[in-house]
Amino acid sequence: MAGTDLLVDSHGRVLRDLRVSLTDRCNFRCLYCLPETEAAQNFYRGRWAQMPDSTPIVQQWVPRTHLLSFEEIERVIRVAVHLGIRKIRLTGGEPLLRSDVEHLVARIAKIPGIEDLAMTTNGFLFASKAQALREAGLRRVSFSLDSLDRANFKKITGRDGLDDVLHSIQLAQDLGFAPVKVNAVVIREINDHEIEALAEFARQHDLSFRFIEFMPLDSARAWQKDMVVPGREILERLRGRFELQPVAADASSTSKRWAFADGRGEIGIIAPVSEPFCGHCNRLRLTADGKIRTCLFSVTEHDLRSLVRHGADDAAISDWLRGVVWQKEARHHIGEPEFIAPPRSMSCIGG
Ligand code: SAM
After folding, report:
1. How far is the CA of 183 from the centre of ligand 1 (A)?
2. Which of 14, 186, 198, 269 could link 231 by a cystine bridge, Cβ 3.0 to 4.6 Å?
3. How would you class 130 by CB atoms within 10 Å of its CB: exposed for 0-12, middle for 13-18, buried for 19 or more?
């Protein structure tokens, strides 16, 4: 193993980015993540027209005693930062469902060495927490917004929440969160007809808007390649409508970015399926129940919770983390015959 105090893997990548899931629970039921009913989970095959109401799927949530406490999360982050992690993103599930989340943010914001503290949220509960999160030291927030059409938003997310999310995005900007990022998962025949409208929304509101390819991480295991709208196609469509200028990005960035030549805002394309960026991946994930994942598509999780709860000191946790990171997968295998979807879906892993 490399003789360094950084988190280095056997492929020479130095990890700087830790995504921390605060809960596997979510108040939305996005079709591509955690569909609500059996009909919805089969939406891919039947598509909308044949989607009758049907039996709700009973979710098996992580038992509360398995969730890492705020003290445990803070401790793991401190150790990780000591090992060179510089970016922390709080996610879920829906991170705003975790009670008193602003208290955790305040604790993390005080850890020396963190250069970037952000949260990914669906925005539904953001308004009630926004001020407290800002005061606690949260600087950046990313929202999910897959549709600007109220009916389509409800079909996709299972909730009539478009107005709340739009309000939250505006509020985040008013409170000085910067940049405010917005993410849309693009799925063919579901919301790909809205690509231009979503980009126009970014331009009008000076947002950093990311179009994400649909990945095989849905709890229904219904992902199929023909539902993915390749990043290249999204870009061609946007170029047909807007004049775009490339924006330079870090090699480790998940997105390729373009600014609107005539104004504010920018778009980014995250294309993990059609144009994988694994060679520059510097990310590590901590699930809400204390498992370390070295890749979004890992089929193995590493049990940090047991270590933490059985009295390991910081040095032991550091050694263990370095050993785990060393094993980070070279790349994912989506679209290849040997691809195996991870046992847990995106909402459990932490997006
Ligand atoms: N609840 C928060 C939210 O909605 O942003 C945070 C968790 S969510 C799992 C994080 C991100 O993962 C969201 O931007 C969501 O759209 C994305 N996501 C979930 N399932 C996905 C999938 N199958 N393919 C691509 N992105 C997905």
Report:
1. 8
2. 269
3. buried
Distance CA 350, CA 91 (A): 6
- Rounded to the nearest angstrom, the distance between the alpha carbon of 4 and the centre of ligand 1 is 34
Alpha helices by DSSP H, listed for 116-188, are 126-136, 150-157, 162-174
Distance in Å, CA 103 to ligand 1 centroid: 24
In angstroms, what is the span from residue 310 Cα to ligand 1's centroid?
Answer: 32
Taking CA atoms only, the protein residue closest to ligand 1 atom 20 is 33
Edge-to-edge strand list for the sheet holding 244-247? 244-247, 256-260, 266-270, 208-213, 180-186, 140-144, 116-121, 87-91, 17-21, 283-286, 291-293, 302-303
3-class state of residue 140 by DSSP: strand
Q: Are 283 and 88 in contact (CB under 8 A)?
A: no
Hey, what are 108's tokens?
Answer: 């993390």
Cα–Cα distance, 43 to 71 (Å, whole number): 41
What's the burial of 17, exposed, middle or buried (CB within 10 Å: 0-12/13-18/19+)? middle
Ordered per-residue pLDDT tens for the chain, 351 residues: 444 699 999 999 999 999 999 999 999 999 999 988 766 666 655 554 455 556 777 788 999 999 999 999 999 999 999 999 999 999 999 999 999 999 999 999 999 999 999 999 999 999 999 999 999 999 999 999 999 999 999 999 999 999 999 999 999 999 999 999 999 999 998 999 999 999 999 999 999 999 999 999 998 888 889 999 999 999 999 999 999 999 998 877 889 999 999 889 999 999 999 999 899 999 999 999 999 999 999 999 999 999 999 999 999 999 999 999 999 999 999 888 889 889 898 999 998
* Widest Cα–Cα separation across the chain: 58
Query: For residue 75, what are the contacts with CB-CB under 8 A and spacing of at least 6?
Result: 308, 314, 317
Give residue ranges with CB within 6 A of ligand 1. 26, 32-33, 91-92, 94, 120-122, 144, 183, 185, 212, 214-215, 217-218, 346-347, 351
Q: Are 350 and 285 in contact (CB under 8 A)?
A: yes
pTM across the whole model:
0.95
Q: What is d(CA 184, CA 270) in angstroms, rounded to the nearest whole number? A: 10
